[in-house]
Amino acid sequence: MLMQLIRHGFSVDLVVGVLSSLFVVFCTLPVHEFAHAFVADKLGDGTARMNGRLTMNPFAHLDPWGCLMIVLVGFGYARPVPVNMRNFKNPKAGMATVALAGPVSNLLMALIFLVLRHVSVMFGTGTFAELLGVFFYYAAYINVSLAVFNLLPIPPLDGSRIATALIPNKYYYKIMQYERYIMIALFVLLLTGVLSTPLSYLSSAVFKGLFNLAALPFVR
Question: Active-site residue 33, yes or no?
Answer without folding.
Answer: yes
